[in-house]
Amino acid sequence: MILVKCTTRHVRIYSAEITKSELVESENVLTLDIDPDNEFNWTEDALQQVYRQFDNLVEQNSGQDLTEYNLRRIGSDLEHLIRSLLLKGEISYNLNARVLNYSMGLPRLESPESVGKY
What is the DSSP string of 23-46? Predict the structure, then answer.
């Protein structure tokens, strides 16, 4: 078996399971790595929303071939969810991250001058 994977900016999906801190290829298990660069500050609820959506997308795609294209579709859907969490304020940029690139748009900072203008 060949390791199938999807790598987007904030999501990595592998056709593997973690055993002793190593990825071991698997035909039956997908492993999800959310925000590997720690670009965001996460709440447990926000993380659980992403995990639930991942489970739903995997279930919807059960029976289809395990291809990089199919995993990329799941990864793209999760990217959209992460962006919506950011826009709703359920997650925020980690301003202490190693690299600040604001890949999902500039952060919104509230100030008395900006209230009601955006």
Answer: EEE-SS--EEEE-TT--EE--HHH
Tokens 């965001």, located at residue: 40
In the prediction, which pLDDT does 26 show?
A: 87
- Whether the pTM exceeds 0.90: the reply is no
Q: In whole angstroms, give the CA distance from residue 9 to residue 24.
A: 23
DSSP E strands: which ranges in the chain?
A: 5-7, 11-14, 16-19, 22-25, 31-34, 40-41, 92-93
pLDDT value at residue 116: 64
**Segments making up each domain of the chain, as ranges:** 5-93
**Residues of the chain falling short of pLDDT 70:** 1, 108-118
